[in-house]
Automatic annotation (TrEMBL):
It comes from Vreelandella arcis. This is Cysteine-rich CPXCG. It comes from the Bacteria.
Length: 69
C-alpha cells in the first residue's frame, strides 16, 4: 500500500448522523466493505468505486445494515 493511494473521505453514519472521516485505500480498486461507526458502533456498508483508468476514488455510497448497495 502506498501513501498516495490513501484518500480521506467524509461520510455521515446512516444511523446516528455522525460525521466520520474514513481513510480509503484506492489501490484496492472498487469493492464493498463494512466499517463500524465510531459513535454508535453500528455497521456501515460502504460501496467504494475507483476509476479503472485513473485509479482515483470516484465515489463512496453509504448504507445501513439493511440496505442493498
Amino acid at each position: 500500500m502506498q501513501e498516495d493511494t490513501l484518500v480521506e473521505y467524509d461520510v455521515y453514519c446512516p444511523y446516528c448522523d455522525t460525521l466520520l472521516t474514513l481513510l480509503i485505500d484506492a489501490s484496492q480498486g472498487s469493492h464493498v466493505t463494512w466499517e463500524d461507526c465510531h459513535q454508535c458502533c453500528a455497521p456501515i456498508q460502504l460501496d467504494i468505486e475507483v476509476s479503472l483508468i485513473t485509479g482515483e476514488l470516484d465515489s463512496v455510497r453509504v448504507g445501513s445494515d439493511d440496505d442493498v448497495l
